[in-house]
Structure formats: C-alpha cells, structure tokens
Amino acid sequence: MLKRMVKVVTVMATSVIAIPYALAILANLLYGWPRCENKYARALHPKKVFLLNCALLDQLFKVKYLKLVLRSRYFHSTAPRSRLIKDISYGTHDSTLDMYWPRGKGTDDRCPVVVFVYGGTWASGDKAMYALLCTHVADALQVIVCCPNYATYPKGYVDDMVQDIVDCVTWVHKNASLYGGDEEEITLIGHSAGAHLCVMAVLELVMKRLIHTPLPPLAVPSGVTSISESIRFDEQHFDGSSAGPSSGDVSNGENGATGAPPGGGEGRLDPAANSGSFIFVEGQMQKNTDSFCVVEEGIGGRTSGSSDGSDEAPDGATGSKPAGQGEGDIADESGSDGDAELAEPLVVAKGERLLSQSQRELKDLLNSVKTVVGLAGVYHIGDHYEFESARGVEDISSMSRAMYGPENFDRFSPVYVVQNLPKNTSMPPIHLIHGADDHVVPVSSTIKLHRTLSELGCKDTRMTILPECGHIDICFDLMDESRRHHHSVMQEVMQAVQSNS
Question: What residue spans carry the region label Disordered (predicted)?
C-alpha cells in the first residue's frame, strides 16, 4: 500500500514539473527562444515557466469567443454583395480590404466611412474574423465600414503596418465616392494593436506635415543660445540611421535633437501619478450605458450621444489598386499652399518609405480623418514590454520583434511621439475607450496617452473607462447585440463618430 502511494505521489510530482516545462518548451519552439545570452536558462527559469503557464491557461478561456468567430467567418463567406465586397487591393504590400454597407442605404446615398483595424499582437488576425463587428457598426452608425488586412509580423514590421494603414486611408479618400462613401468623413477605429496602428498612422501624417511646413519662430528658453539647442524635430531622429533614444536617453545636437519629455528625464509618465487635471465622474452614465467618463477640466472634449439585406452595391465598384498614393487639411499651418513633393516620413524608421504626397494632398488627407477611436490600445511600447515581462510572455510575444527590438520602442510609442510634438499641434479628435478589467493591456496605457494629449493642448481628446469590461469583450461584444457590453461600447463609438462628423 505504501509503495503504491509513493508511486502515485512520484507520478503526480513528475507531472506537475514535466507538463509545465513541456508547455514552456513548446511555446518557445513555436514563437522563438529569447534573443539573449543563456537563452535556454532564461526561458526555462522556474518563475518564468510558472508565469508562462498561467498566461497559457488564461488563453483557454478564449474558447468562449469561438462561436462568435465561427459565426463571423460564416457571414463573411455568405454575405450578399449588396452588403459586402471582399478582397479589394490597396497599398504597396499587396494587401486587401473588405467594404460593408449598412442595411437600407440606397446606392446614391453618401455615407461616412469607418476604417476598422483589428488587433492581434502585431502578428495575427484576419479581416474575416470581424465581419459581424463591421456589419453591426455599419448598421448602427449608418456608415460604410472598411476592414483591411495588413502586413503582420513576420511578413512586415511595425513601420510596414503603419504604412498599410496610411495606404488604406489614402485609398478610401481617393475611392470612397465610387462606393457611395463620403471621402471627407473618415473615422479610424482600432482595437489593441490596431488602436496603436491607428494612432501611429495619424501621427505619421501629422509629423510629416510638421517637418515640411514652416512653423512660427520658437521661443528660445532662457540660457539657450540658439534654436538648435531647444526642442525641434529633424528627420534624422527617425530615419533609421541610428538607434532611437532609450527611455532614459534624450539626445541633443544639431541633427535629430529632441527635448526631454514632460515629467522627467526618463521619458515616461508614472501611470499611478495623478496630474489633478481629470476626475472620474460616475454620475454621467447615459441610458443603456454602464460606462463612466473621464472629464478633463478645461478640455473641450465632445460628447453626444442585423447582418443581411438587399441593398445593391454601387455600380462600377472595383477592386483595383489606386494609381497613386496619398491625399490630404486639418489646420493650414503653413504659409504656402504649393505642391512641392515631400521627403521621407518621420515616424516610419525602416523599410520602404511612404509614397510621396504633395502638401495639399497631405492636408486634404488629414482633414478627412474626423475621429480616431482607440479600443484598449497599446500606446507606450516600453511600458507594455514591462507588463508582458511581469506576465512571463515577453519572449514569446511578437511585439518586441515587430518593433525592431527594445532600442526602437520609443520611436513607435504614441505617448513618446506626442510628448515631442510642438505645443498645440493640430490633430484629429481622439476618443480612447478601455475596459477596467483588462488584464492583457492595462488601463494605464489609455490613461497615459490621454494625459499626454491633454498636456499637448489637444482639446478634442476624450477617455472612457468601461466597468467590468475585459480586453476581448470591448471588441467582440460589438459582434452580437445580446452581449453584455455591446450597447455601452457601441454608444461610445457612435458618440465619438457622430459628434465629430
């Protein structure tokens, strides 16, 4: 009897050790071993193995969303052409997009256009998974929804993805009228990594405009003998010729000089710090909404308030790739309106440069983007890497690889880019939405970007925190009206889109 008990205990103890280590080895084989010395010792450290298995166990709970994914893919494969046109080519990476029409819209009606960018850790996802979401948004907002695929890692890196989103917006601006869309009413909506790409795409256009637009003379701070010693922007800082500044290293000099971000030399805001400039207001809940908003004191943030059909798509709708790239007017900050060709982009550091755009086209393109809505987005890559490290998944996550490694985290972090913009830079309205129970991307990510935008002087920025809402719920609940957070998230999205149309 005793011998049998010892045998059972031995088997159980062996299983407790062997199974977690087997899963850890399998995960590293699938996603890659750490890129450092002693990579095997790092990957198989007991603490990391334990954390990694906890994260893998958490992934099992995603099975509850499988039915939604299957329903969405089924709708994508069976939807009539009057509701969905698939696989329209766009951009420079042979990517494709789908376009969804709202129920009951005539072919002669011009609708605003929503571009939805899905997430997936910059390495996964497919537009077919989000067909139900897109058609529900199209019906609820009475808009045309465009959902693009983009060059996820390892096919592309983050600059390729940003380029794809800019290409998609450019394609919509050029071709929306052919499909019954209003090319001057474009909204970007992104979830998770998709929210990061949406904000980066807008910042790409904003900074491209800044470096090719004469700015008013800078006020030279006391003790500084020349403008070159104060905050300014230069293409070399982002042109890939040298490693980007780390979180605690801000360079200074004639080329690529930048100023230290507000709040200290480390270049990062404390997510727990309270600037005193915003408060949580629970009393502002609206009908059918269980959300509460963050109201910025002195900030003029704006608020407002099925899957088949028979509408025919516009005649002549085709999937041809546009002949050229780019169009673009948020505020005209230039003293000229010439058509001089622009040089390479500022934010995109490596890979192919965006196709040239004239100043007028760039202004037109920026003016057409009326709103950016971020759902549970990643806005500070360095902070998120630390969060992933605490979960034990930083080495198998594709984020670091897609960003060209830690030395480039800052240059692809919206928070860091916004911190280094000139004060009161003109930008489209940005509405950030996050779930309070998000354990994949912490809510501090949204709070930090909102605070940074407010410090920059962006008056049209707003933040909403949804109670008891998780990372996937905030997106997938939009696929089904019976889901718990469907109405609250949809109302926030509708409010953001309609208040800025």
Answer: 236-274, 297-338
